[in-house]
Write a structure and sequence with these properties.
Layout: H1 3-12, E1 18-22, E2 26-31, E3 35-41, E4 44-47, E5 53-56, H2 57-66, E6 71-74, E7 77-78, E8 81-82, H3 85-99, E9 111-116, H4 122-134, E10 139-144, H5 145-152, E11 163-168, E12 173-179, E13 182-189, H6 193-208, E14 210-211, H7 214-224, E15 237-244, E16 250-256, H8 257-280, H9 284-293, E17 295-298, H10 307-315, E18 319-321, H11 328-338, H12 340-344, E19 348-349
Parallel strand pairs: 1-9, 9-10, 11-17, 17-18
Antiparallel strand pairs: 1-2, 2-3, 4-5, 4-6, 7-8, 10-19, 11-12, 12-13, 14-15, 15-16
The structure holds adenosine-5'-triphosphate.
Subcellular location: Cytoplasm
Pfam family, one: MreB_Mbl
Family: Belongs to the FtsA/MreB family.
């Protein structure tokens, strides 16, 4: 081993390794020995006049809220994959620098495990990989999101039993059957939480003649959205403001949770079809394990009220929603870093 390798390994053991859940909606960074240190929206503020990146995450969102005419909000990831390479790299690099509390001036660059959707093409994988290296990784490793989510949720991924994961994020719904430490069958649907927001906005426009933005639609979904009637039997309502479709004048209306439920039917039905198709591709032994063990529902979209019960009814398989749905992927990536055998099984690595 050369002096540089030895030195790099030594400094690499000083807590600089990082796990990153590079999501369409949120980016989470966790560090070995520290846990989650960053949980921020995947948003970058760009100065319109110069096209310079001025801020990322919460800071970017605040800037845009206060002076929207001077900055544009970029979402560098669309449907789980990189849509704008330069802006993604700038965002990653800002998060990595923010997370790396440099305890020692000689500390090495971090090794980074970063997740990608199952359906990512080799070009999309390469883009994430390069972005991590350019943003400051010493070594970069890629892992598929549902595998990371399953590890984060403590599913028995290495055992000879079948576990099924449905990870509903902002941009993608990832479905995977895992056994003996690998993904046996998987598929990725480019429809998830963001599509729910869009269908809510469209439905309210048609029903009540009000135009709302995606941010308002997301608040509605989280506050009064549900795919089945609420378990306490009480429906909810909420006052929202937007613009009149015809006059574009300010408009305020009270919306009912039943209206939101109607809007959520189409995207949720599409998810059911997708999960059923993946289940059909599973071999009978693993399928019977899944029927016995149930399906893990994770990702922020999995928190939609009633979605676990709805999927259970439609699939005729028990579905349980993880209590740590928003953090399983990053926690799983961190476990990969801490388990050398798991690190070897990642999809792509730089050395
Ligand atoms: N309580 C909730 N009810 C319904 N949806 C929710 C809730 N909390 C978060 N979400 C939704 O979860 C989505 C974000 O989830 P998550 O952070 O897992 O996605 P991501 O990792 O950024 O996206 P992707 O994996 O697709 O790249 C958003 O659409 C958000 O509106």
């Amino acid at each position: 081993m050369s002096f540089m390798d030895w030195f790099s390994n030594l400094t690499g053991q000083m807590g600089t390794d990082m796990a990153i859940d590079l999501g369409t909606a949120n980016t989470l960074v966790a560090m070995t020995g520290e846990g989650i240190v960053i949980n921020e929206p995947s948003v970058v503020a760009i100065e319109k006049s110069t096209h310079r990146v001025l801020a990322v995450g919460h800071e970017a969102k605040n800037m845009i809220n206060h002076t929207p005419e001077a900055f544009s909000a970029e979402h560098p990831l669309k449907d789980g994959v990189i849509a704008d390479y330069d802006v993604t790299e700038a965002m990653l690099s800002a998060f990595i620098n923010k997370a790396a509390v440099r305890k020692y001036p000689w500390q090495a660059k971090p090794r980074i495990v970063i997740c990608i959707p199952c359906g990512a093409t080799s070009v999309e994988k390469r883009a994430v990989f390069e972005a991590a290296i350019q943003a400051g990784a010493r070594q970069a490793y890629l892992i598929e999101e549902p595998m990371a989510a399953a590890m984060g949720a403590d599913l028995p991924v290495t055992e000879p039993t079948g576990s099924m994961v449905v990870d509903i994020g902002g941009g993608t719904t990832e479905v995977a059957v895992i056994s003996l430490g690998g993904i046996v069958t998987s598929s990725s649907l480019r429809l998830a939480g963001n599509r729910m927001d869009e269908t809510i906005a469209m439905h309210l426009r048609d029903l009540l003649g009000i135009k709302i933005g995606e941010r308002t639609a997301e608040v509605i979904k989280i506050k009064i959205g549900s795919i089945l009637p609420f378990e306490d039997g009480r429906e909810r309502d909420m006052i929202i403001s937007g613009q009149d479709v015809l006059t574009e004048q300010p408009k305020e209306v009270t919306i009912q949770s039943e209206d939101v439920r109607q809007a959520l039917q189409a995207p949720c039905e599409e998810m059911v079809v997708h999960i059923k198709e993946t289940f059909k591709k599973t071999n009978p032994d693993l399928a019977s394990d899944i029927i016995q063990n149930g399906i893990l529902l994770t990702g922020g979209g999995g928190l939609l009220s009633g979605l676990d019960r709805y999927l259970s009814d439609k699939l005729e398989i028990p579905v349980w929603v993880s209590e740590t749905a928003l953090t399983n992927v990053v926690t799983g990536c961190l476990k990969v870093l801490e388990t050398p055998t798991a690190l070897k099984q990642t999809l792509m690595r730089s050395k």
